[in-house]
Amino acid sequence: MVTGTTSPLLARAADWWRAGLSFLYPEVCQVCKKARATAEQGFVCAACAAKVEPIVPPFCECCGRPFEGEITTAFHCYNCEGMDPSFSYARSAVRAHDTLREIIHHYKYSRALFYEPFLGTLLAQAAAETVEAQHWDWIVPVPLHPTKQREREFNQAERLGRWLSGETGIPLATKLIRRVLPTRTQTQLTREERKENVRKAFKFCGKERLNGQKIIVIDDVFTTGATTNACARVLKRAGAGEVCVWTVARGT
After folding, report:
1. Same domain, 84 and 28
2. Is 2 part of a structural domain of the chain?
3. Within this chain, do residues 109 and 225 fall inside the same structural domain, yes or no?
4. 99 closest CA partner among 133, 65, 51, 140
5. For 45-126, where are the E strands, in sequence order?
6. More confident residue, 100 or 71
7. Residue 120 located in a structural domain
8. Under 8 Å between Cβ of 230 and 222
9. What does the pLDDT read at residue 68?
10. Predicted local distance difference test score (pLDDT) of residue 4
11. Can you tell me the distance from the alpha carbon of 228 to that of 22, in angstroms, rounded to the nearest whole number?
12. Does residue 71 share a domain with residue 132?
């Protein structure tokens, strides 16, 4: 969970939030619908949480794609060939397998916000120690187009970014870039179609150019990296010194 000092008002609000969730959702896992799970767990029981696979080495040094087998030297995978990454590295907390993919889908498209403590904790636990040691300046969530955000009523990348910000103290910057094109969903597109779909989708909106700041781009899922790389490219062109990418899940 997110650590840090909490005001009495926020603590009281959190109690009300938990009480409201307990009223709407009995303390039952919302994945298997059988075992006990609390609001603090994101209504995911220990057995279902254990099905989620953390990403551990070996993986691609550039995009973090996990590799099955034993490799003792640094390597770059085929996904990075021709991508021309603008980020220094991309990492994900867990693999986007069945259980995790189902949770993220309901979280994003069915407003299953009760899953957020589970997803936010996965991200914070995987990323916090690394990014704190590397002294990053800002966390920038991948923005949604205003039309999409009105439909969904929230930006999942921004909400997940707040978990990492709360854990590390790195400020969340939500106004540096915006999505200026209502792009198609990336889900059914090929790798090349994904790159073209987001090539001009983002614009830098800072009041002045950046001055070498180190920036973490946050999203929920990394698949080919087209979206996060487009954001990183905009930030680098605006003067960012370095950009890395962190996501909850890694797709294939």
Report:
1. no
2. no
3. yes
4. 51
5. 89-95
6. 100
7. yes
8. no
9. 78
10. 38
11. 36
12. yes
pLDDT digits (tens, 9 = 90+) for 192-216: 777 777 788 899 998 899 999 999 9
> Does 58 sit behind a cis peptide bond, omega within 30 degrees of 0 on the bond before it?
yes
Per the listing, tokens 């991508």 go with: 83
Domain boundary among 50, 65, 81: 50
Written as six digits, the tokens of 16 are 């009300």
Q: What is the pTM of this model?
A: 0.86
No. of H helices and E strands in the chain?
8, 6
Say whether both 64 and 177 belong to one domain.
yes
**Is 229 inside any structural domain?**
yes
Whether 11 has a pLDDT exceeding 80, the answer reads no
Nearest to 195 by CA among 234, 243, 157, 227: 227
Residue 34 pLDDT level (bands cut at 50, 70, 90): very high
Q: Residue 111 burial by CB count (10 A; 0-12/13-18/19+): exposed, middle or buried?
A: exposed
Say yes or no: 108 and 144 in one domain: yes
pLDDT tens digits for range 97-134: 999 999 999 999 999 999 999 999 999 999 999 999 99
What total number of domains does the chain contain?
2
Is residue 204 situated within a structural domain? yes
- Whether residue 35 is predicted with pLDDT greater than 70 in this model: the reply is yes
Q: Are residues 25 and 60 in the same domain?
A: no
> Among all chains, which residue has been given the structure tokens 């709360």?
166
Structural domain harbouring 191: 54-250
User: Is 115 in the same domain as 174?
Assistant: yes
The residue written with tokens 């930030």 in the block is 235
Q: What pLDDT shows up at residue 205?
A: 94
pLDDT given at position 184? 62
* 87-97 mean pLDDT: 96
Residues β-bridged to residue 36:
28
Contact 70, 225 (CB under 8 A): no
Give phi and psi for 183, each to the nearest 5.
Answer: -70, 160
